[in-house]
Specification:
Blueprint (H helix, E strand, L loop, with lengths): L4 H18 L8 E5 L5 H9 L4 E4 L2 H10 L6 E4 L8 H4 L3 E7 L2 H14 L3 E6 L16 H7 L6 E7 L8 H21 L8 E3 L6 H6 L4 E4 L1 H4 L6 H4 L11
Parallel strand pairs: 1-2, 1-8, 2-3, 3-4, 4-5, 5-6, 6-7
Length: 248
Amino acid sequence: MSGDVAANLATVRNKIGEAAERSGRTAEAVRLVLVTKTVAAERVRQAVRAGQIDLGENKVQEGRRKADGLAGETIRWSMIGHLQSNKVKDVLRFAAEVQSLDRLSLATALEKRLQHLGQGLDVLVQVNTSNEASKYGLAPDEVPAFLKALQAFDALRPRGFMTLARFTPDVAEVRRCFRVLRSIRDKAVLDAPQGAALAGLSMGMSGDYEVAIEEGATIVRVGQAVFGPRPLPDSYYWPDLAMTAGGS
């Protein structure tokens, strides 16, 4: 992999387009959220200057610092990692979207702060499609009741779902995870109160985003394929969240 961020970004975009074509869609049907965790702001700026607008962060404090460091650039930040309710005030200072809504207590905290600010927020419901205890997210059978409960939150705009496939070289198992989320989405669009607004599918990271697109992803979360491998594993940076980060 080249160390040239702009070149790597172009390669990823080309692969997104090719995978979208294989799934009968255009490249424009898939939104790339570039994951910037552990990447210095100036290196991220290279991607922004190459036309990348959507950026994603896993940790609130790092996201705030990076947003401050990139102030003045045209950027839309997404929170893609597990979000603690006591960090809601901070996350809303930079994020326009939260992809990791996984419990009503978090919805309540977000709603309270958003009402205070007079703002709305796009959210994705995180689902644990791999049934791993190490991952956050609702169990698939919990989703319908959760979507009904979300009707009570006026400031939250549910736009679909997010998942992390099982980390495995078994492509069939990875596809299974993505197909579970697509099935949940398809059913929700027909049956849930929010209906067609739930069309979004955020799934796929650096190692599996092409497979995710083939299975219907409308959002992919890619970092290392553009910025290169991190110097140390995720477990070094976040030992309590080694397998729960929202994108890579």
